[in-house]
Amino acid sequence: MNEPYSSTHPAGAGADVAAKGGLLGLWQIVFLVISAAAPLTGMLGAVPPAISLGNGAGIPGAFVIAGVVLLVFSVGFASMSRHVVRAGAFYAYISAGLGRPAGMGGAFVALVSYTAIQIALYGLFGFFGTVVLGPLLHTGMPWYVYSLACVAVVQVTGIRGIDLNSRLLGVLMSLELGILLVLAVAIVIHGGGPDGLTLAPLAPRNVFSGHVGIAVMFAFASFIGFEATAIYGKECRDPKVTVPRATYVSVTLILVFFAFVTWAIVCAYGMKNVADVATKQPGDFWFIQSGQYLGGALTTAMSFLLLTSIFASLLSFHNTIVRYIHALSGEGILPAALDRLHPKYGSPYLASYLQTLSVCVPLGLFIAAGSDPFNVVFSWDSALGTIGIVMLQAVTSFSVVAFFRATKKDTRLWHSLVAPVLGGIGLLWIGVLLVRNLDALSGSDSPVVRAFPWIVLAVALAGVAIGFVLRRTRPDIYARFGQ
Predict the structure, then answer these.
(1) Domains of the chain
(2) I need a surface site. Which of 103, 178, 200, 399 has the fewest CB within 10 A?
(3) What is the pTM of this model?
(4) Taking Cα atoms as reference points, which of 173, 66, 122 lies closest to residue 393?
(5) First vs last Cα of the chain: how many Å apart?
(6) Mean of the pLDDT values across residues 137-165?
(7) How would you class 444 by CB atoms within 10 Å of its CB: exposed for 0-12, middle for 13-18, buried for 19 or more?
(8) How confident is the model at residue 22, as a pLDDT?
(9) What is the pLDDT of residues 264-274, one digit of tens each?
């Protein structure tokens, strides 16, 4: 907040992906960001441990709590998007509110966090590749063959432009939402399980039973990716209207969908049985009910859709990280060559190659170390990435307050002060839960895992320090950063 903020951007050969602007409408952005949240992956992966380690049958309420916190956060986030339209949304917002050094720290944390999440998802794809595709192909190929093949497909698809990506992700998202919705509706039509259809899972006595904080922590991790709405501001039609609407629509859809589907699955098992099954058979938790209500063919389809869900999330995060790299190159923080757009597809293709390389190197190290794709690659990296994103969201909330207090561009009390403060406090609470329950989130009490919060802090401080150095040594680059 020490330097003036300008919403104008320096001209240049590739100053933004705006060269291909106006391609995306409301629902295309919604497809992009809900795909990042990977609803099917979140349901199959996060719900069983959230039930067994968290609040049991009250899990639908945990998704409501997480969703409400993010809806409150979205008020300030969406208000900010009307005044700051940049591909590097998080760090641009932090720069505008708290100053460029803080924004630089945010940029570094965003790159590390999103990259960690993508590495985690490649590990998860490899793991389920061996489970789903191995028997079908009658092969015992190791997990990393599937992961690296997925890396190649994501790279080829990602470079072909955001319009194709949004249409493809729309199809994949519809399929994964559809299979879960069909299961939930089938449970409702058949009247549920032992207790029938009951609202007891949403009753406060059940929602706040057990370890509700751990349940909210897992629920919140299932929402990661929705914040990418603002990243596509320069590529959508009328960003000052489309981005806020896409943010609210995305969070609301994820909240309602997750709450309804988890309520249905709890009803299917019954209030007394659901925690026991989630603890003893977490891998089959959803497939047991799918087999009963949908039959073998659709249950098999669900296992294949799990792979497409992970792929869709990978492609969405790839696009997110590429736009961060592209924005930083346009501001002089990264090499200018990364600002180039593909002559045919209009995508930042060199940034795309760099992003793929930044994933392949850590994956190669995990492969060389013989790491388990689920218990180490996925669990550890997703924990690291989630901590970083939650802390970024919290800082962004407070930067919104600082921005509007300084500029008076939005004087509405709820939008510019109350909602951002409440959202920031809620996110800090979730961040504390993440740190205190890292062993549950990551499935490990390794000293490496316990160091994750300090790693995120070190990355942030390194970015802040670089910001101060640039202010003294390269004032031209410093002046352009976050603008």
Answers:
(1) 17-480 (1.20.1740.10)
(2) 178
(3) 0.87
(4) 66
(5) 13
(6) 87
(7) middle
(8) 55
(9) 999 999 999 99
